[in-house]
Amino acid sequence: MSNPLTSFAAIHSAVSLAQQIGDGLGTFAFAVSGALLAVRKNFYIIGIGTLAAVTAVGGGITRDLIVGRHPPVAFTDLWYLGVALAAAATIFFWHPPRKLTGRPLDIADALGLGTFCVTGTLTAFQFGFGAPSATLIGVVTAVGGGALRDLLAGQVPRVLRPDQEIYAIPALLGAAVTAVLVYFDRLTDLTGSLAALGAVALRLLALHYHWRAPQARADKRSQ
After folding, report:
1. In whole angstroms, what is the distance from residue 79 CA to residue 24 CA?
2. Digits of tens for pLDDT over the chain (223 positions)?
């Protein structure tokens, strides 16, 4: 079996454009989810822009700090911030009623989750991490922005809440599939996109059917 890092270097040029597109889509989707939550919380324009930007680049900044990219790309390539602010402006001028922010927020969040779990994993491979570590970094990239968004909005991050549908598990699946594809030299634009879509689909199915992660069973003797 070939070295996965060598294999990744060989196919990187073929997927780099797709990775950049994925980063752009994930940034925009997460920014929309942050802006929609800000609308739901009755934030004003600065709050909408802040929540959109933090959601869009928070996971990527965390990823870059872990892999040793200093400064994080969000501070050197202002394109990411521009995409986030464009999404915030779109939501601000549309200004949807609070009752309409629920489902669009969930869909935008799922799209960001799916794309970032793949691109985060690929970035970790680029910086020399092995498959298990790259998978974990992919998950952190996917859930980090949403967690920061929820904290700034004054609520427990959904990734930690037992009353919320599975969130980290779809990201873990997408990241793990991406790592396996890299390891076995099967990563292409198509297979990488399918890994992202698989994570998105699992998240949306979880929302539709209310799939939740199991909780520790309480000891009745202590009650």
Report:
1. 9
2. 445 544 445 444 444 667 788 889 999 999 999 999 999 999 999 999 999 999 999 999 999 999 999 999 999 999 999 999 999 999 999 877 777 678 898 999 999 999 999 999 999 999 999 999 999 999 999 999 999 999 999 999 999 998 999 999 999 999 999 999 999 999 988 999 999 999 999 999 999 999 999 888 766 565 5
Structure tokens at 206: 């979880």
Q: How many CB atoms are closer than 10 A to CB 42?
A: 8
Cα-based torsion angle of the residue sequence 33, 211, 157, 152 in order, rounded to the nearest 10 degrees: 20
Q: CB–CB of 92/102 below 8 Å?
A: no
- Helices (DSSP H) in the chain: which residue ranges? 4-40, 45-67, 73-76, 79-94, 102-126, 131-152, 168-183, 189-209
CA 142 to CA 21: how far, in whole Å? 16
- For residues 168 and 109, the answer to whether their CB atoms sit within 8 Å is no
Tokens of 155: 């609520």
Q: Which two tokens stand for residue 65?
A: 């700090």
